[in-house]
Amino acid sequence: MIDVLVVGTGEYVTGLAGEAVAQSDKSFGVVALSLFDMRDRGLVGKIMLAGRNGRRFKAIRDHFETNLKGAYPTLDVSFEAFPAEPVTDPYAYKTALKKLPEGSAVMIFTPDDTHFAIAKDALEAGMHVLIAKPLVKTVAEHDALANLSAKKGLLTMLEVHKRYDPIYADAVDRIRTFGDFSHFNAYMSQPKSQLETFQAWAGISSDISYYLNAHHIDLLAWALTDRARPISVYATAATGVANKKLGRNVEDTITLTVTWENITSGNLGTSIHTASWIAPPSDVHSQQRFFYMGHEGEIHVDQAHRGYTLATDAQGFQSANPLFMKYTPREGRFAGQEGYGYKSLEHFILSVEKLRQKSIDLSTLDKRLPTVANTRTTTQILEAGYRSLQENVPIVL
User: Fold this and answer.
1) 3-state class of 291 per DSSP?
2) Distance between CA 267 and CA 291 in Å, rounded?
3) So what's the pLDDT on residue 14?
4) What is the pLDDT confidence band of residue 195, given thresholds at 50, 70 and 90?
5) Where is 276: in which H helix or E strand?
6) Which of 58, 86, 166, 347 has the most beta carbons within 10 angstroms of its beta carbon?
7) pLDDT one-digit tens code per residue, 334-358
C-alpha cells in the first residue's frame, strides 16, 4: 500500500469552495473520495491532506462525515490534517513530507504558480509526484523537474484526466491514422461562479488559459507526438466581465493560435485553443469540445453532451457525464472506479506501486503515461501563450 499526501484542499480535492459545498458537478470532490475508495480496496495506506488554513479542516471533516458517508455509509473518510487546527501555515506540506516514508506519493492540487516549489520539495524528499495541470508555468521549471525526477528515479506525472476518457483516447488513436495534421479547434469554459472560487489567484498568479487550455493542448500534443511540432504561438484575450466581478484586470476569455509543422513533410497546420470562465449557468458545468482535421479524416467531439440527460426537482435539466465521476452509489457503496477522473489518480498510484516492486521502470512509464519527460510541449505552448498575451506579439518557438 502507498501512503499519500495531497497538497491542496480546494474543490477538486474535497468538494468544498471555501467552507461551503461547491455549487458545481464536483460537490463530492474527486481526489479525496477516490483515495478513500482506493484505501478501501487496499491500494492506499495513510492519507494526509495539507492546506494553508487549519481552520478549514472542521468544515472538510463535517462535509465528509455528512455528505460522503451519507452516500457511502461504510466508507472510511478519515485523514491526517496539516496544519493542525487552528494554525495557518502556507508551508504545512513540508511538515507532512517529513512524516512520509521515502517512495510515497504526493499529489499537488494547488494554484498554478505553487506547483514547481512543492513538486521540487517532494522530489527532493524522495517522493513520487502527481501534479494537476498545468504541470508548471515555464519550460525552465519543467526542465528542472524533469532533470530532478530522472536523477532521483522518481515518477513525476501530469494529472490530465481527459487522456483516460475512452472517447478522447479513441479519438487520439484515430487521429494518428489521418495523415498530416491540418487544423484543430478546441473550446472549454466554466461558469462565472468559478471567478469567485478562484478569486485568490485569478489574473494574479495565473490565468484561464493555463487552467483550462492545458487539457486540449495536451490532447493535441499527445496525438501529434513525433509527428508534428509547434513553431509559433499568438494569444488574444477578451475582457470586461472578470474585471468588474473581481475589481482588477483579469482576462475573461483567452485564445491561443498555434502554428505547427508536420515533421516528415514540412506541411503546416494550425490549432486554436479557447478557454473562458464567464459562461452563464447551463446544463453542464463545463462546455468541452474540439474539432480535428487531418489530411485524410476529421473528428468532432462534444464531451459535454453525450446523449445522456436528466431532470430533477432539485437541479433542473442536466447533461450527465458519469464517465468522469460516478457519484450515484450502488447498494450503498461508491461505484465510480471506472470514471476517467478516478482512473487518472489510480494509474498514478498503481504505477508508483510497480516502481516500488521494481516490476516496471521509468522509461516504460514515459511511453505510457503523461510524465514530465513527455509533456514539455504542453508547457512550451502555455508559456508562449502567456508571453504573447503580455507582449502582444507572436512567440516563435
Assistant:
1) strand
2) 19
3) 95
4) confident
5) strand 268-279
6) 347
7) 999 999 999 999 999 999 999 999 9
> In 3-state terms, what secondary structure has residue 11?
helix
Q: At the top level of CATH, which class does the domain 166-322 belong to? A: alpha beta
Q: Scanning the structure block, which residue is given the C-alpha cell 450527465?
A: 320
Residue 325: the pLDDT is: 93
Rounded to an integer, the average pLDDT of 47-70 is 94
Cα-Cα-Cα-Cα dihedral sign, residues 7, 11, 196, 58: negative
**Quick check: bond before 329 cis, omega within 30?**
no
**Ranges 60-64, 75-79, 134-138, 306-310: which has the least confidence:** 306-310
Q: Is the pLDDT of residue 24 over 90?
A: no
Kindly report the average pLDDT of the chain as a whole number.
94
CA–CA separation, 298 and 108 (whole Å): 36
Enumerate the β-bridge partners of residue 5.
Answer: 48, 106
User: Is it the case that residue 360 has pLDDT exceeding 90?
Assistant: yes
3-state secondary structure of 31: helix
Query: What topology is assigned to 2-161+338-372 in CATH?
Result: Rossmann fold (3.40.50)
Residue spans of the domains in the chain: they are 2-161+338-372, 166-322
Burial of 123 from C-beta contacts in 10 A (0-12 / 13-18 / 19+): buried
Q: How far is CA 282 from the centre of its chain?
A: 22
Q: Which grid coordinates are listed for 17?
A: 469552495
- Is this model's pTM higher than 0.85 or not? yes
CA angle 8, 11, 15 (to 5 degrees): 115
DSSP string, 332-369: TB---TTSHHHHHHHHHHHHHHHHHTTSS-HHHHHHHS
Q: Write the CB contacts of 70 (distance below 8 Å, at least 6 apart in sequence).
A: none
Q: What share of the chain is helix, strand, coil (3-state, %, to 5)?
A: 35, 25, 35
Q: Is 60 helix (H, G, I), strand (E, B) or coil?
A: helix
Q: Encode 3-32: b = buried (16+ Cβ within 10 Å), e = exposed.
A: bbbbbbbbbbbbbbbeeebbebebbbbbbb
